[in-house]
Amino acid sequence: MDQDQRTAAPCVVVPDGALAPADPTPGMSRRVAAQGEGMWTGTVDTEPGAVSGWHHHGDHETTLYIVSGRMRLESGPGGTDVVEAGPGDFVRVPAGAVHRESNPSDETSRAVIVRCGSGAPTVNVDGPAPG
């Protein structure tokens, strides 16, 4: 990194209590830590047994890091592609991928979200991509 690419801006801590409620999807509780040009980051909590509504993240590429609990995602044609992740796992959600999340465990799940892209970070839809 050359001298012109560096900035004098300091590193910043965003305490858990400072996160604000964010773009809701039924069955999920999102909180935003920071957002700006091309970036969104925060957390999502899903109660045990909960199933979210169908949604996508527009032009945002999304990565989830599972902190606790389990997370199951249904996507693809007719929602037939299913992945499940647990603590320490990363999940990639491609831009525009219609999906829904559920928590098959008996504890609240928490994931850290990082999105890169533009536009609305969440778009709720009626159902999965056509099969």
Any overview of this molecule?
The chain is an all-beta fold and 131 residues long. Helices cover 0% and strands 43% of the residues. The strands form 3 sheets. The chain has a 6-stranded antiparallel beta sheet with strand order 1-2-3-10-5-8, with no helix packed on it. It has a 3-stranded antiparallel beta sheet with strand order 7-6-9, with no helix packed on it.
CATH architecture: Sandwich
* CATH level 1 name: Mainly Beta
Low-confidence runs: none
Q: Give the termini separation.
A: 47 Å
Q: How many helix segments?
A: 0
Overall radius of gyration:
16 Å
Q: What is the fourth-level CATH superfamily?
A: Jelly Rolls
Indicate the structural class.
mainly beta
Helix percent band: under 10%
Instruction: Characterize the overall form.
Output: globular
- Give the overall average pLDDT: 92
Strand arrangement across the biggest beta sheet:
1-2-3-10-5-8
Features:
Jelly Rolls; single chain; mainly beta; globular; about 0% helix; three-stranded antiparallel beta sheet; six-stranded antiparallel beta sheet
Secondary-structure topology with pairs:
Layout: E1 20-21, E2 29-36, E3 39-46, E4 55-56, E5 61-68, E6 71-75, E7 81-85, E8 90-93, E9 99-102, E10 109-116, E11 123-124
Antiparallel strand pairs: 1-2, 2-3, 3-10, 4-11, 5-8, 5-10, 6-7, 6-9
Briefly summarize what is shown.
The protein is mainly beta. Helices cover 0% and strands 43% of the residues.
